[in-house]
Amino acid sequence: MLTNTKLVSIGNFDLKLNHLLIISILALSFTVSFLLRSQAADFGFELNEFDPFFNYRATQYIVDNGIGSYFEWNDSLSWYPHGRDVSATSQVMLHLTAATTFWIFGGGLDLYNFTILFPVVFGSLSVIVIFALVRVIGGTTAGLFSALLFSISLPILIRGPIGWFKSEPLGLFFGLLTVYLLVSGINSQNKKVAFAKLVGAGIFTAFSISTWGGNQFFIIPLGIFFLALPFLRTDHKFIIWAIPLYTITTILTSFGFERVSSNFIFGLGGISLIASTLFLVSCIIVQNKSSKNKARNGLLFLVVLLIIATSLIVVNSDSQFLPLPSHRYLNALNPFLTTTDPLVDSISEHATTTLDQSFLFHSVLMIFSGIGIWLIIKNIQNKNSSFIKNDMLFFSLILGIVGVYVSATFVRLEVFGSIAVIILASLGLTALTKEFFKNKPQTKKPISKLIKLPYVIGIIILLIIPMIFPVGSNVFAISKVPPTILNGGTVFPITSIDWLDSMEWIKNNTPEDAVIAAWWDYGYWIQTLGERATLADNSTISTSVIENIAKMLLSNPDDAWVSLNEMQADYVLVFVAGQKLGIDSEESFYILEGGGDESKKQWFMRIAGEDLSKHLFSDGLSGTDYFWNNTLLGQMFPYTPVIYINFQTNEEFPIYLPGFEPVYVKEIKYPSDGNGPLRLVYASPSFTEEKVGPMIGVFIYEVNKEYNLTS
User: Fold this and answer.
1) Do 84 and 70 meet the contact criterion of CB atoms below 8 Å apart?
2) Which residues span the domain enclosing 104?
3) Where is the domain boundary, 132, 165, 198?
4) d(Cα 97, Cα 170) in Å, to the nearest integer?
5) Is residue 266 predicted with pLDDT exceeding 90?
C-alpha cells in the first residue's frame, strides 16, 4: 500500500509514509488544542480563576526555598491566625512538576508567565497520551480519531485554557498516562517492558491523584476491570503478578504524599483497588484448583465478594470505620445523594449537569459512541473481522459507562464524560471506517467508490458542525472568555483593572501584618497579589470560619464590628457587579446583579443559617429594607435602592412588587472621614467612572478600632 512506502531509514528503523501521516495528525491535534486554549490571552496575559494564584505562589515558594522547605511550610497568609499546612492540603505534584519543569525549561521566562502557559502545554500534550491509550485499545486509526476529538472537546477546553494553572490539565495528563501504561503493560509481549510499564503506571497513579483528587474516578473502571480480568484473559500466570505489581507500586508511591496517603490509601479508593486485586489473585487460584466448572466457581466467588462488599458499605455508612471522601465525591458516585451543606451547593462547578449542557458538550459524538458500542460488539462475534480484543472491548465499555455516569452529577466532572465519549466515538468511527473501506469483491468496486466519497464528506461535516453551531455557544466562543481576575468572575465579558488595582493598593497601602476579611472566593487573590493574610480562602479548609464570616456580614453593624475585632481583622473587602443604566438624568442609576457579592448574598444567608425571607423579597435576590438598613453587608454596598421598575412594561413603583427590579443610586454609608465601625479607604476605578454598561467595583473598608459602640 502507498502508506507503507519507505521514505528513509534511520538505523534499523524505516520511516514510512504512514508514520509521517500519524505525526502530522498528532501535530495538527496539538496545534488546534494549543490555539483554542490560548484564545483568552487576547483579553490579557493573566492567571485565570482563583486557585491558580495559590498554585503559583506555592510553586514560587519551591523555586525560592527548595523542595525540602516546601514540605515544612505552614502558610501564614492563609486562614489567619492558624495558617495552612500546605503539603498536607494541596495538589503537591502540580507544584513540584511546575517547579521542576520551570528549572529545566523556564530559561529567562518569568515564573508567573510560565505558569500561565503551563496548562496549555500539558493540556495540549494530552492529545498524544490519549492517542497512545486508544491505539492500544483499538488500533492506530482509533487513536488518531481520539487525538483530534480530544483537541476540540469543549468540557476539556473549558477546564484547561491559558492561565488555568489548576488541577485538571496536568491531572488529566497524568491520569491518561497512568491508564495507558497499565493497559499497554498488560498487553505487552515482552515481560521486562511490561514490568517497567506497570511500575510506571503505579507511580503515575499516585502522581495523578496528588495532582487532582478527581483522578480517583479512574480507579473505579480499573477496579471493575480487575474483577473481570480472570474471566477475560487466559494467561493467568502473567496477570497474577502483573496486577498486584501495579497495585503495590501505587500504594507504596502514595505513602510519599500526605494528602494521598490519608485520603486515598485508607479510603474507599485505595480499599477498592486493593480488594479488586486480592479478588483477581484469589479467583485465579480458585480456578486453577478447580478441575471443572472453573468459570462458574470464579463467578460464585465474585458474587460472594460483592455481597460482602455491599454489606461493608452499608455498615460503614453508619460507623464510618473507613474514612469517607467528601460529599462532592460521594455525590458523584450516588447522584441521588443530597446535601444540607449550603457551602457545597454554592460552588458553581458543583452544579448538576443539565441535559442541554450534555448535548452541547457531546452532540454528534453521542451518536458515534452508540454506533461504536453496537458495531464493536457485532464485530467481536466475528473474530476475523474484529479490531479489538475481548479484554480491551470490556475495558473501553467500562471506562465509557463509568465516565458518563460520574459526569452526570457535576459540571466539573464532564471531563470524564468527555473522555468516555471520545474513546467510544473513536472506536465507533474506526469500526464504521473499516466497514466502508474494507476490500470488497471485484464486482462491487464501482459501487464501493460511490459510497466512500460521500461517507468521508459526511463524517467531516458531522464533526465540523459542533465547532460552528450553535452560534455564540460553539467551541470557539465558549473557550474564549476573559481571565477571571479581569472581570471578577462576573457574567460580563469585559476586562477591567479593578481587581488588579485593588490588590496593588492593598500591597502598597496596608501594613505588612494586616489581616483582610472577605468572602472566601477572593482569598487567594488577596494573599498572592495583595500579599496580605486572609481569614479564609478558596481551599475551604474550615467551614466554621466561613460560616462565621457569613454571620458577621449579616449581623447588625455593631455586632459585626465586635466579630471583626475578635477575628483580628484590620480591613474588610466587598465586591459589587452591575450595570449603569443609560437613563437621561442628572443622577446615575444602576442595576446590581452580575456575579459579585450582591449576587452571592443569598448563599451567605444560607451558610449563616439566616431566614432568607427576612433579608430577601419573593424573587430571592432583591434585598429587603431590613437587609439594607440592618446588616453590615447592606451598609458596605455603596448603593441604595430608590425605585423598582418592571423593564417589560416600563412601570415604576416606590416599593417592591413581584416582577419589578430594584434600581440603585450611589451612597457611601461609611465614608473615609466618618466615625462608623468601618471607613471606606479604597474604591476601584470603575466606581468613579460614569460609563453606561457593565460595572464592577471592589471596595475596601478599614475597621475603625476607635469606634464606640452605640449600645
Assistant:
1) no
2) 1-165
3) 165
4) 9
5) no
Pairing of strands 693-703, 571-580: antiparallel
Q: Is 107 left (phi over 0), alpha (psi -120 to 50) or beta?
A: left
In a domain, 410, yes or no: no
Beta strands in 436-522 (DSSP E): 515-517
**Which pLDDT does position 407 carry in this prediction?**
78
Give me 87's grid cell: 503539603
Q: Which of 269, 153, 165 is nearest to 216 (CA)?
A: 269
Residue 626 lies in a domain: yes
pLDDT of residue 458: 74
pTM of the model: 0.90
**Number of helical (H) and strand (E) elements in the chain, helices listed first:** 32, 13
Amino acid at 549: I
The residue-averaged pLDDT of 384-407 equals 78
Domain final residue, candidates 101, 134, 165: 165
In the numeric block, the cell 493497559 is attached to: 183
Count how many domains the chain has: 2
Strand partners, 697: 576
The three-class DSSP label of residue 648 is coil
Asked if the structure places residue 40 within a domain, the reply is: yes
CB atoms within 10 A of CB 244: 17
Checking if the pLDDT of 573 tops 50, the result is yes
| DSSP of 261-284 | IIIIITSHHHHHHHHHHHHHHHHH
Helix axis angle, 557-566 to 543-554, nearest 10°: 150
- The C-alpha cell at 122 is 500539558
Based on C-alpha coordinates, what's the Rg of the chain?
29
CA distance 50 to 440: 58
| Gap between the Cα atoms of 458 and 367, Å rounded | 14
Rounded Cα distance between 13 and 15, Å, is: 6
Does 188 reside within a domain?
no
